[in-house]
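Example with several molecule types.
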Amino acid sequence: MVLLPDGIDFSSGAAVMLQGMTAHYLTRDTYRLKSGDRWFTAPAQIPKGLYFPGYSDANADIGDSTITETAGIGGFAMAAAPAIVTFVSGTPKDAVNATMEMYEITFTEHKYFTIAPLDFHGTPTGIDLRKVIETGITPRVNTGIAHKKAGVGQIGAGLVRPPMKIFEEALVAFAEKYDI
Amino acid sequence: MKAIKINKYGGPEALIYDDIAVPEVNGNQALVKVAASGVNFIDIYQRSGLYSVSLPYTLGMEAAGVVEKIAPKSLGLSPATAWHLEEYREATRNM
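Resulting structure tokens for the full complex:
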């Protein structure tokens, strides 16, 4: 139980806790943070995509959608789900191109998540920091678009990419840590 | 008081808007009159049975509201003290 600060209404207060728990379990169960680990942050981005009729005013993209891409699914597996590409006004060919682009910045192919139209190659998996910097390609994340006002909920779906700045900062830290 | 419950797993039709008794506060619990509650995908998973819960079950994982009653052990407060919300706010700020 947490005291609601002055100026925060009940609706906003009610919407905070589970979102915070997502961050909590990611740093405990999914990957246990330990001394010496670092993370890098940047402003959340507004997704590009299609809105449900009559809606606008998207919130910046926060939440756990991004985590799926790091495991080789979501936007990285777009070639396996061409219908999803209509979220960004694309064609099935664009879906294949989206996955092909992510092979440029990943370390390997997923062992179990395979894509039929790509001759059962595994989905691009394991974002390689150095390749992101080298190619200038940032990970593409499929995401829902939430309204910026608490309580309105999802108003569309689309694509978001994290800013290049966090990869640049992380590469510098990586080089320092491993003395490269 | 009202609650949205499930007696068995299922689709939206499994939701039951029901009357339940106001819960007693025990141990380190507090009774909160809910002013707003969050709705999350986990509520759907629990309703459908994807995540098992002990049935019958009252849905809802997060809420905001006003503390109406607080059990003596809560926050290490003295059992003799009658805590009203404003005092509780002040006490929390001073902790």
